[in-house]
What does this fold into?
Amino acid sequence: MAIYTTKIENALARKRFFIVLDYIITLDQLDALHGSKGFHPGSKSIITTQDKWLTESCALFKANNRPKHERHLLVSLDEIQHYNLCVFMHSCATIPRKVMKRKSIGSCSFGQVSI
It folds into this structure.
């Protein structure tokens, strides 16, 4: 996993980016995103998790120059469908997680890096 983390970190270093991380379940996954180089100013990320403790405990949010962030709780079917429409271009709230992950990974561009 460290090899892939390094590849992603190098691909995103010194570049503005937009990334969607869906269904994060461990603190290691979030900390791996931040890496040792941090984010370029203006970069954006959407992180979905079922445990708000993860975002409160992540190294990214403990840094000196904390990113601007908003926390949203998606509860209603309309909110979940809106999220799916914006991120995955599909409004169905019952998309299996594996399909959602494949679609989100497929929509991210890492340049020449093959993961």
